[in-house]
């Protein structure tokens, strides 16, 4: 049996431990004031891109050379004498990155008082679309998924539709403009102009993803509903009969009984030929710029000719089975996407 004094001390030590545990469970951990408060940067405001698509106040990025490539952006207000080159040099990025992010063309001039979104690293912004995965986005930009995840502090590859991601080292996708900072609903705080900023994806002249509640689907020149994917599906109410594979660098897509074929994006028709054409049958090719070309094979009728300019969703042909067609594919469109001469999986651009 232990002595009374030892039992007395043991009892009080246990009580003290319980009290300390209870206090620690309800009080926040201690942090020095210097770790909680940050001074405002005199030259610009600092913000943090978060999952819901809003920009929130964050800490200063500090020395440019030591900035980590996290999902932080800077709002810079243009001053007299500023140019894209001087601003880019100040933030250690290229002028092209600023152009892409703020939709500034080669012919646009900066105006004093203009607010620019400055990314922490060279690259582009990408607005996540419904059904996209981190791996798919990485393939689109030829950037590693790990680099995008580290850049945007993504855990377990979890992303949501509408989320804006910074793609480090990325370039605008061929055939589609990059996500840009434009009038919309991202809140930047009281010191900026009354116009809010929002990331949007332009789908063509007069058509963007910013449609009001209750608005009907946007309609292309021939009545096709314009989708919000990178490229327009070339047909409506259609199913895939053969997928992209090492032996088939395209999608075979079928509308039961046939139907109209639509342009996947704005572009110029470079080829519209009738005949066998190497097995493609009656075929159309459209150049969308930036190295992207789409091909539509096995058509029954062609409604465009070489040199025509077409809009996204415009009817260009009628589905058929001309050329080399066999097996279960039947009447369908053979749809290819080529980027800089390389055939890509069309699903990367359709989903």
Which terms summarize this structure?
Glucose Permease (Domain IIA); alpha+beta; 10-stranded antiparallel β-sheet; 7 helices; 351 residues; 4-stranded antiparallel β-sheet
Describe the sheet with the most strands.
Answer: 10 strands, antiparallel
State the helical fraction: 10-25%
Strand content: 25-35%
The gyration radius over C-alpha positions equals 28 Å
> What structural class do helix, strand and pairing data support?
alpha+beta
Low-confidence stretches: 34-70, 181-223
Mean pLDDT: 75
List the topology elements:
Blueprint: H1 4-26, H2 33-36, E1 45-49, E2 55-57, E3 72-77, H3 84-90, H4 95-102, E4 115-118, E5 123-127, H5 134-141, H6 145-152, E6 164-168, E7 180-186, E8 197-200, E9 239-242, E10 251-254, E11 260-262, E12 267-273, E13 282-289, E14 292-302, E15 309-310, E16 315-319, E17 333-339, E18 342-344, H7 347-350
Antiparallel strand pairs: 1-2, 1-3, 3-4, 5-6, 7-8, 9-10, 10-17, 11-16, 12-13, 12-15, 13-14, 14-16, 14-17, 17-18
Describe what you observe in this structure.
The protein is of the alpha+beta class. It has two domains: 45-200, no CATH class; 239-350, Glucose Permease (Domain IIA), CATH 2.70.70. 18% of the residues lie in helices and 26% in strands. Strands 9, 10, 11, 12, 13, 14, 15, 16, 17 and 18 form a ten-stranded antiparallel sheet that branches. A four-stranded antiparallel sheet has the order 2-1-3-4. A two-stranded antiparallel ribbon has the order 5-6. Strand 17 and strand 18 form a beta hairpin. Helix 3 (84-90) crosses helix 4 (95-102). The chain is elongated and about 105 Å long.
